[in-house]
Amino acid sequence: MTTVDLAIVIVSYNAREDLQACLSRLRDDAPRATHQTVVVDNASTDGSADAARAYGPGVRVIDAGGNLGFARGTNVGIAATDSRLILLLNSDTLPPTGAIDRLIAVLDARTDVAVAGPRLVDGAGRLEISFGPMITPWAEAWQKTLGRAYAAGVPGLTALVQRRARQTRLVDWVSGACLLVRRADAEAVNGLDERFFLYTEDVDFCASVRARGRQVLFTPEVEVVHRRGRSGRHAPAATARAYRRSLLAFYRKHHPRWYPLLRLYLRVRGLLPPEA
Question: Are 40 and 62 in contact (CB under 8 A)?
Fold first, then answer.
């Protein structure tokens, strides 16, 4: 296998329209860095795999054989590539011209940084809160408060969110929707923890990287469009259950003292997912 600068790994599940838009953008506005693109298809039933294959030899499609989830699917994609850097990219993202190369330049300029993530905005240009502190009960409550306040246009908190998202900063995590990592650092932590089927795997991955003394950087110098949540609209109940399972797995791993209380809280509210 020929080594290139960058492997772009896209895990896709029933997101054909978004996947085609993403792959078209990568083809039409291709990074200058030598790269390979791998799509891991999690047993989609909407023709996603065939649609990706239509892009020709520049896109390798791996049939996962089932819905492996994001973490395991990503690891399959990483294992199938050979590159200096790895870009985890959601199928519902649209990187503007030059964005990926700028993100590479930002990472290459900081030898202490293992992971870099850009500023994410939705299709209308509205900011997505795509970085933050390590998940704890308090941090999660604050993050949700900021998100709701920004969505509602609450003046003081909206200004705070916007100000924070204009500053390059070291953070605890950046979103896995568009996450650039050095392969050496990804392999040092054995990739993404496959206990997380969907959600929080990016926070956990960044925590593993930081535990080795490496840094995670948020950079507003690069902006990427993320049409967030479009795939989840097809199965909102299943998406919500997946989030709660991952949150439970996260607390069991990182905050075991809080784990029983989280289970109790979800049970009382009738939200405890099956087999959790």
Answer: yes
